[in-house]
Amino acid sequence: MNHPRLVVSMLRPEFYPNKPDTVEFIQTHISYIFIAGDLVYKVKKAVDFGFLDFTTLGKRKFYCDKEVLLNHRFAPDVYLDVVRIIEDKNGNLLLSNGDRIVEYAVEMKKVPEDRMLYRLVEENKVTEGDVRRVGIYLARVYRNIQSDEKARLFGTPAVVSKNVMENFDQTRKYVGGPVSSHMFNAIESWSRSFIDNNSKLFAKRITDGHIKDCHGDLHLQHICIDDDRISVFDCIEFNERFRFGDVASDVAFLSMDFDFNNRRDLANVFVDAYREESEDMEMINILSFYKTYRAMVRAKVTSFMLDDDTLDEVARRNAFLKAKRYYDLAYEYVSNED
């Protein structure tokens, strides 16, 4: 478990070297996040969800190092370091280089919330030029990531099928709820057929070098456009199967998110800019498949909220409607391909 006084200690402004006026606290299912002025500190919770395991201090240190290393590819100015949290002889927790280490934290620069891509979309402040820059930036980042032997294994039909079919296995119980049996069966059948009928396409994506150690969670909430700087953060560090794969899967994720937010025009601008800069013109042949996969990933994650007994009726209804929109979007993708 995490140190029992960790959160209360890190809520104090004097805990931090920059002495912020206040500390904002955000909690996710896997992290404690402390916003201390212009710096952010992320601590991994001592949890084990099967697909990730942060239960020991050594594992949390390993994945903190991994998070900084991997995200530095996408946001080198945001991810700063992994810092130690120690307990002194009086029992106080400190950010220091002492020997009695009780926790590790990822130290980051705070990015401006009003320049986050999801916020710009919500407020209708994003331009086609902004989105084109994102596509070009990402194409250049991926260009510098090698497609090695390890990565190529994740592009085989067998591995792709495992990832895709896992979504259906884990969401089948929601049939009759946010998704009808007709829609669910159509999405599943189309996805299976695509894999079965496109072995040559998957093989070509491998030989052409498009299977890489990617981001894995590329959507609007993980991109910041601040003047001339683009930062892409929160790459998945805890599970290689969720991160390695075809770059088209990452591109499809962000494209799908634009679609979900009723900005198909921006989805097209982004994809076109990426394809032109990367010279990966054949990506279009597999993009709908991965957009369907990504819509089902989001449908699954949102559907899981329906199993949370702590949700009130309003939150449960909102989760139901949001999940339904993702299922509807996946069905729309496969219907357009028939």
What's a quick, concise take on this entry?
The protein has 338 residues and is of the alpha+beta class. It contains 13 helices and ten strands.
Task: Chart the SSEs and their pairings.
Elements (H helix, E strand, L loop, with lengths): L5 H5 L12 E5 L3 E6 L2 E6 L12 H15 L7 E9 L5 E3 L5 E9 L7 H6 L5 H16 L5 H4 L4 H15 L9 H17 L1 H9 L3 E3 L9 E4 L2 E4 L7 H4 E3 H14 L3 H15 L5 H21 L8 H25 L1
Antiparallel strand pairs: 1-2, 2-3, 3-6, 4-5, 4-6, 7-10, 8-9
3D architecture notes:
The chain is α+β, with helices and mostly antiparallel strands and 338 residues long. The protein has 2 domains: 6-110, no CATH class; 115-337, Alpha-Beta Complex (Aminoglycoside 3'-phosphotransferase, Chain: A, domain 2). It contains 13 helices and 10 strands. It has helices spanning 6-10, 57-71, 117-122, 128-143, 149-152, 157-171, 181-197, 199-207, 240-243, 247-260, 264-278, 284-304, 313-337, and strands at residues 23-27, 31-36, 39-44, 79-87, 93-95, 101-109, 211-213, 223-226, 229-232, 244-246. It has a 6-stranded antiparallel β-sheet. The chain has a two-stranded antiparallel sheet with strand order 7-10. A two-stranded antiparallel ribbon has the order 8-9. Helix 6 (157-171) packs parallel to helix 12, helix 7 (181-197) packs across helix 13 (313-337) and helix 10 (247-260) packs antiparallel against helix 11 (264-278). The longest helix is centred in the last third of the chain and has 25 residues, at 313-337.
